[in-house]
Amino acid sequence: MAEGTWEKLSQVAVLSAEYDSPERQPHPKCLEGTRVDHLKFIHGLLDKRDKSQIIWLHGTAGVGKSAVAFTVAERMKNLKITQNTKIETRLAGTFFFSRNSTERSTTGHFFATLAYQLASNFPSVRNDVNRAIRENPAVLKSSESLRNQMKALFRQPLLHLQLSLRDCPPPVFVIDALDE
Question: Ranges for the Nephrocystin 3-like N-terminal domain (predicted)?
């Protein structure tokens, strides 16, 4: 039964929205030695355990926000949550929006995609995600309210994950081009 719900989620998750998707090549990335102060500041905020952080990068088109987002995502993917883990990395999920892509230009499967990545990166929350889908299969429909999707697929699994990771650096989600 759980495999059926996982399969349904994998079919609606927008895999091309992941930071390293082949569809997004060439990947915008900060060149070595550039944006050092910005990246150091962002990484410092992301390492704080005492409270949740939302970092909002803003600026005109072409200033490098996507390059910074990709670089942060790549670094978080290379950092493990604990020394003993083989799977769990600091990067819990990403969604890189694009107005040039039908799937990535809407929020219809935004939370389903993040939930899929979260459960892939942290298998301990997969049961929570599967339960949410079994209890309300309509939560996977792009027409379902974002609030309902967020609560069922994202918030509840994150609450359980937060309890198990209370002594670890926080997992990170990177969202890029939300305005698109």
Answer: 46-180
